[in-house]
From TrEMBL:
UniProt keyword Signal present: yes
Residue ranges of every copy of the Photosynthesis system II assembly factor Ycf48/Hcf136-like domain listed in the record: 67-126, 166-246
The protein's name: Glycosyl hydrolase
Annotated Gene3D superfamilies: YVTN repeat-like/Quinoprotein amine dehydrogenase
Top-level taxonomic group: Bacteria
Keyword list, A-Z: Hydrolase, Photosynthesis, Photosystem II, Signal
Amino acid sequence: MRAERNFVSRGPLWGACALALCLWANVSVAAQPTTFAVLQQPALPTAKAQRAVLLGLARAGERLVAVGERGIVLLSDDAGATWRQAKVPVSVSLTAVQFVDAEQGWAVGHLGVVLHTQDGGETWQKQLDGERAIALAAQVAGRDAGRPGGAANVAQARQMLDDGPDKPFLDLYFSDRLNGYVVGAYNQIYRTNDGGRNWQPWMGHVDNPQGLNLYGIRAVGNALLLVGERGLLLRSTDAGQSFQALKSPYEGSFFGLLGIRDGGLVAYGLRGNAWWSDDRGDSWRRLETAIESTLSTALQLRDGSLLLASQGGELLFSHDQGRSFDRRQSRSGGTVAAVQQAVDGSLASVGLSGVAADQDPLASGKP
């Protein structure tokens, strides 16, 4: 087995999440259990679910949906004031969640898990896991072995077989109910065009010869972009058929992307680094955040302003495309892994200490 790379970060949020197999935890996967009963074991109901480590947060219509350790999924129908636990068929840690409307959503996590819901997060079904993902990669490699680029697919499939099905998915992007991607460690990327009933390994379509971790995927205009470790930036302008490397503005890891409604793009990562592009990644302008904490999430608010949040709990609001920031501290006082604006305009966030809701109009960026 190859030497394992840490999933980069070095921040308090991800380091403290090691027990939950948090997505950038500074832990070698070689030290993790080699049995995968968690893929068949439903998430256990717990009265402490709201205080669990939570890593992802999304809007499903007027509902908020949070995901995190041990397969915990929480639902709130009152802007984050109260939460209840949903039924989930696995107890593996979940890292990200997205809804395309009030009913249809997906969540991804460790051991290559992809979950799907058709009822706004009340119940979930497993669509993919690491064992199935490896089998699919092997099928594609065998089919394409004699074609141009086939040798690379064979090498990737062999490496996946050697390593085992323990690699996490770290982000996802669906454009609608049918078309989507999931991405993760070691260049893992899978594509679906039927809502996840079938998944296609897409690693051979990505210009990432070092197999760097893919941390984020988003669309801006008619382009689709990927970001990852060591400044990795990739872009597709042919509806995802191929992803080509872009020149990166810095060498540190990017942990996420945000597409702005007017066509702008924000990439963010280590030590407060954030960058803005108006040309789909051809050129970048550095955003002066004036913080040293790793940026963990970004959101465009209803009024068009930008919000960046950090592992240190800092909330950075900008009304001028990131040229200046109003810095505040999360009311929870803890780390922020993901943030959403609720239907009433307030902010809800999740992190190391679970869920938090901030009803303060000023703190939530409302005018």
